[in-house]
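Q: I'm building a small set of examples for a reading group on sequence design. Run inverse folding on the following structure and report the sequence directly after it, with nothing in between.
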């Protein structure tokens, strides 16, 4: 968090200037025969889908458990009453 917008802007500009200097220094380094590192491509899998489903159910369950009844949204049936 910054003291005010001026401080935030100065910090942003300082970071940008630093990044530009680093990029210039890296660009001026002599090239070496370095092969790029291959990364694993994410794909869908049954365990991944199961983990995502369980995580979502757990998060929704905890959210429902800790939300007071007064703060829960009303259903159509409750509105008709």
């Amino acid at each position: 968090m910054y003291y005010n917008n001026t401080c935030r802007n100065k910090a942003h500009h300082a970071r940008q200037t630093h990044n530009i200097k680093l990029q210039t220094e890296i660009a001026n380094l002599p090239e070496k025969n370095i092969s790029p590192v291959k990364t694993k491509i994410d794909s869908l899998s049954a365990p991944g889908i199961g983990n995502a489903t369980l995580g979502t159910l757990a998060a929704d369950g905890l959210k429902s458990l800790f939300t007071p009844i007064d703060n829960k949204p009303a259903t159509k049936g409750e509105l008709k009453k």
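The CA atoms of residues 38 and 51 lie 26 Å apart.
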